[in-house]
Amino acid sequence: MGDKHARLFVDGADEAIELPILSPSLGSDVIDIAQLTKQGIFTYDPGFVSTASCDSNITYIDGDNGVLLHRGYPIEQLAERSDFLELCYLLLEGALPSAAQKSEFERTIAAERNLPAGIANMVSSFSTGAHPMGIITALTGALAAEYHNGLDITVAEDRDITARRLIAKMPTLAALTYRHGQGKPPLPPREDLGYAENFLYTTFADDENYEINPVIARAMDRIFMLHADHEQNASTSTVRLAGSTGTNPYSAIAAGVAALWGPSHGGANEAVLSMLADIGSPDNIDTYVAKAKDRNDPFRIMGFGHRVYKNYDPRATVMQETCHEVLAELGVEADETLQMAQRLEKIALEDEFFIERRLYPNVDFYSGITLKAIGIPTEMFTVIFVTGRTPGWIAHWKEMVSEAYKIGRPRQLYLGETSRDYVPLEQRS
Ligand code: CMC
Predict the structure, then answer these.
(1) Which of 135, 189, 270, 89 is nearest to 200 (CA)?
(2) Model confidence over 106-120: pLDDT tens digits?
């Protein structure tokens, strides 16, 4: 933070308004407009395209250069050398764990995997055709009911327990949701298995003899890692906004789950597969690219473009590699969907429309194909994203509530009717 200033000249005012400029450790300077309201003026920025909603130490994205750092560590190094639970610890605590801290964290998470009985029973009240995202939103909200009494978010230990509980229980909720859709009874989690292994076991196993493929487990772990955090995206901002009222943190996370569902956000991985199914054959790709370029047609290439990345999404590069590893392991390299996705990617990347707008594949372009090969049904894809993103949401919530914070309360540019008198019903035309 430096002593630079910006000056704002408003027509009709005698003097310029001086606004402090804050300098980040990385990235663009930020004009601090918090005091503007005292001058009777607000700023207007629908979609928050030019607005930093908070300060944060957790994740940094340089969208022009395709850089993603968690607590300073590049995602490529983390994906290659770390694992999901270590990344969770890093996001929550700000530093990589020592060996003792790592095993203690893993033990705590493994011990917290079971669900309260009420939650496990609740899933059976949904029809088997109910959308898994609707179910997991409800189940996450239900955790708030189970873990409310005695929870004091001003106490650090309570915040830590909440964080660990959510990370531990989310894959159990995901597996429960999947099995409900398949008409299968829930399978209790196992403490002796790693995070991704336990997820695969509770999702797919019929009994204790289920064999976990280490290549698939590693891919699953990486998928969780690549989704773990992405600074102030729509769902994380939702968690912060909900959390800023002092609400129960499980409720704030349920709000984040709901926000993630949309096809412009986490729902894009599901939308990619639906889009590829609609395209149907490589012969139709040109028609769909033309549709995406037609300003009168709402169709967009799902898994392409990003508000922040105006370069290759670094997560997409790792995801593409993981996708190839999984398909090779399962012997489905000639997968038609993958071939069509690669063809579509190549055509779009060479097209002036996409080049000019700096539209590149994002993480969701290849995650859906990978998940499909692993055996996860399309409607479960965003639930996997939920499981991966949970540590990010909770790390941001924890960061916010661990210090002084204000309730999030945006203002508006009102364009409605001016004041008018009520007209009794019999006098209206
Ligand atoms: N296909 C075709 N055109 C596109 C696409 C796309 N996927 N994305 C953006 N554009 C065009 C858009 O039509 C606009 O063109 P013009 O300048 O002629 O009006 C221009 O690019 C800028 O688009 P925008 O909507 O102003 O960009 P945005 O930053 O508001 O939207 C986005 C970002 C992710 C919502 C958008 O790129 C999109 O809808 N992508 C498809 C959905 C998707 O893959 N979402 C997952 C994001 S990554 C996962 C996550 O982190 O949530």
Answers:
(1) 189
(2) 999 999 999 999 998
Ligand 1: residues with CB < 6 A are 230, 233, 264-266, 268, 292, 295, 300-307, 357, 359, 362-364
CA distance 338 to 322: 13
Catalytic residue among 221, 229, 313, 364: 364
Q: Compute the distance from residue 305 Cα to the ligand 1 centre, in Å.
A: 5
Q: What is the pLDDT of residues 183-229, one digit of tens each?
A: 999 999 999 999 999 999 999 999 888 999 999 999 999 999 999 99
Of 102, 73, 111, 387, the C-alpha closest to 222 is 387
Is this structure's pTM higher than 0.90?
A: yes
What are the beta bridge partners of residue 19?
Answer: 6
Residue 180 annotated as catalytic: no
280 C-alpha to ligand 1 centroid (Å): 22
CA angle 360, 328, 198 (to 5 degrees): 90
Is residue 364 part of the annotated active site? The answer reads yes
Average pLDDT score over the chain = 94
pLDDT higher than threshold 90 for residue 74 = yes
User: Stretch 11-38: mean pLDDT, rounded?
Assistant: 94
148 is catalytic: no
If you measure from the C-alpha of residue 304 to the centroid of ligand 1, how many angstroms do you get, rounded to a whole number?
7
Contact by Cβ (8 Å): 159, 401: yes
Strands 67-70 and 59-62: antiparallel
